[in-house]
Each structure stands twice: as structure tokens, then as C-alpha cells.
Amino acid sequence: MNSLNDFCLWGIGESERIEVAWCLQEGHGTLPAGSITGAHWVETPNFIQVTGIGNFVALNGGELDPHGADGNGNPVGGIVMANGVAIKEWTSFISSNQFCFRFCPDGHDAAAWCQHIYDLEGCEWNEPGSYEVGFDACDGESGQMPGIYVENGVTSTYYQGTDENNPTPAPAAHPAGATSNCQYVSNLGVAVSPLAGADVGCNIGSIERHQLEPNLEFGVLDLQRSTILLLLLFFLFVPHNFDQGTQLHLGR
Questions:
Q1: Which pLDDT tens digit goes with each residue over 209-227?
Q2: pTM of the predicted model as reported, rounded to 2 decimal places
Q3: I need a surface site. Which of 88, 133, 136, 178 has the fewest CB within 10 A?
Q4: Can you say whether the dihedral through the CA atoms of 194, 198, 201, 202 is positive or negative?
């Protein structure tokens, strides 16, 4: 889980215990082209998550986390890496047309922000965010911890119960935290940068548009290299007849 253009999703096999990683980048187990039609990467002070939509029938769906009923995780021994760092707390949901993956670095109440006990509630309840067509990467506010509610100064925790056929009705999902500094791409697999003329409003929160400055340094360097190469070719392959008194000055 490195960035908007470099992340993987777990695809459930015969059971939650055995999974296959499906990734955007080649070399890991590549997602079929066009599977994801919306992906929204948000970095907050307490967690990073990516949410979105697409066609995930082939991935079989489900809820996964590093704990499981026996503490060995679903999948067993599953490891999530983020830019070279092993993540201890994470949670993932996939349905036939939605996905969400949140990981919580050590500290900042990681286990509470990446809850794993609400497996019946799905993506939008556990990981509020954008589930729309399009691709963007944003900064964001953390919002509220899943399952924790404060009313009239009293804090309570929701528990769904252990009976999957008769769970305790869930309260309303928390709203997603506000986002800012969103960068847009037309499709996954290209550099993350603002799209010219893109709407400055994200699906959640407020947005500040980044301006992409042209990089002139590399253009000047390429011109210098091209000039030197042409001069070398000129002296190597073009016959030259200079009188003894003729001098050729290059530069000063």
C-alpha cells in the first residue's frame, strides 16, 4: 500500500484464511485492466485509506484484518507493507462493486482507528470516504473512530454481537473527514498531478488545487547534451581541410 498508483487488494480464495494479492503494479498479481473505476486515496493524521468502486466479482469479496478469530489473521500470516514499513493494524472490505482498505501506522490509537470487529457493516460504515467514479489522492482529517459515539457528553461503543443472523442494529455511520489538497488523475497508472480544468471540489470535504510548475531544468540539460553530441558527430564524420593558419575556436 504505497500510493494511489501502487496498491494491492486481497482476493478471497476458498476461505478467508487463504488469499491472493491483486495489485496495480506488475510483478505481484495484476488486477485485470478496468477492474477499478473509482479510487480515492486519503492520508490523515491517524490512518491512510483507499476507497473505491469497480467490478470485483472475481475477487470473491469479504472482510479481512490481521487478527482473525484465532489471532493469526485473515489471511493467515498476511503482511501489509507501506513504502517498506510493515503495518500491524489494517482492515479491508471488498464486495462485488466496492472496496476499501485502511491501514493505521503504529501509535495514534492504531487498533481503534483500524477496527476489525464490525465485519458485517461493510465499507461505507467502517471506512467513510468517497465511493464514486474517478481517481484522486488527498490529505484528510481523521473524522471519528468507527463504533465510538458521543451523545450529550456520554461516550458509548457499539458492538454488533456474535450472532451473524441476528446482529445488534448498527447506528448510523460517521461522516467522512474533510479532505484538502486533492490531486486528480484521469486513470490509474499515471503520475498523480492535477488535471487541467478539473473541478476543484472532491466528493468529500473542501479542496485546494495544486498548481503543477513546469520543470525547465531537465529541458536545458537535454539541450546542452544534444549540442555536445552534434558537435562530436560533426568532427568525427565530416571531412575537414584547414590551412595551417586556420584556427577553429569553440567557445571562449
A1: 232 233 333 343 344 455 5
A2: 0.72
A3: 133
A4: negative
Give residue 168's pLDDT: 83
Whether residue 75 is preceded by a cis peptide bond, meaning omega within 30 degrees of 0, is yes
Distance CA 83, CA 81 (A): 6
pLDDT score for 39: 97
12-37: average pLDDT: 79
What is the phi/psi pair of residue 149, to 5°?
Answer: -130, 140
d(C-alpha 132, C-alpha 156), whole Å: 31
Instruction: Kindly tell me if the per-residue pLDDT of 236 is higher than 90.
Output: no
Is residue 230 classed as helix, strand or coil in its secondary structure? Answer: helix
More confidently predicted of 19 and 212: 19
Q: Residue 232 has what pLDDT?
A: 62
Q: What is the edge-to-edge ordering of all strands in the sheet holding 48-54?
A: 62-64, 89-94, 98-104, 48-54, 36-43, 134-140, 179-185
Place of cell 454481537: 161
Task: Kindly state the average pLDDT of the residues 134-144.
Answer: 96
In three-state secondary structure terms, 74 is: strand
Three-class secondary structure assignment of 6-73: ECEEEEEEEECCEEEEEECCCCCCECCCCCEEEEEEEECCCCEEEEEEECCHHHCCEEEECCCCCCCC
Scanning 85-165, the segments in alpha helix (DSSP H) are 110-113, 123-126
Return the top range by mean pLDDT from 153-157, 188-192, 193-197, 213-217: 153-157
Distance set, CA 89 to CA 18, 28, 108, 110, 114 (Å)? 19, 22, 11, 6, 6
Q: Which residues, including other chains, have CB under 8 Å from residue 128's CB and lie 6 or more apart?
A: 143, 173, 174, 175, 176, 177, 204
